[in-house]
Amino acid sequence: MIYLVRHGESEWNALGRLQGQMDIGLSEEGRKQAALLGAYFKQEGISFEYVFSSDLDRAFQTAKLATAWLPVESITASRLLRERFYGELQGQLLTEILEHVPNYADNFGGPMTHGMESIEEMQERMVKVLSSISKETNGALALVVAHGGAINALIHKLTNGQAGTGRGKIDNTSITRLSWDGKNLAIISVNETPHLNHVKDTFEG
Known about the structure:
Elements: E1 2-6, H1 11-15, H2 28-44, E2 50-54, H3 57-66, E3 76-78, H4 94-100, H5 119-137, E4 142-146, H6 148-158, E5 175-180, E6 185-192
Parallel strand pairs: 1-4, 2-3, 2-4
Antiparallel strand pairs: 1-5, 5-6
Helix pairs in contact: 2-3, 5-6
């Protein structure tokens, strides 16, 4: 089974600034969230044999903090687990982006503007990397830390649009659990946050 986790709050999440694939670190709140996630895993006896992460710092640091109590030898970083590339929009405030590109986060189909990666391209790489991880881990518990937009796009793909992008949000350090039957990924649960007493509402990224 895969525990697919969104990274903790980043410095730009807190500011409402779109990150995309820019390498922004965790905020103090984000580090706290990641530590609470690790404490929850320890308390529940959820021990991972494999740990994977986006190579962006906010995800990699979340993976390190959430598994600090485990004898994890290494965390495998992958560019395929990165957030969507938003091109010229990266680094801008969400309030400004929404004025000019209100559908920036759920613009399915058609040519992309501002040099953005399409949602379909992001879905394809997320299915590819998680299928590869599932084959490699062969049923063992695996933690995978990625990004809100990427996780939501995967959920949209696996549910044929019934959930995910445009229908729900993915909270910082939330858990989405996936199963693998040898051929296909399937969703067990979405956006679980049992380790948090409250959830800060921040933009995906």
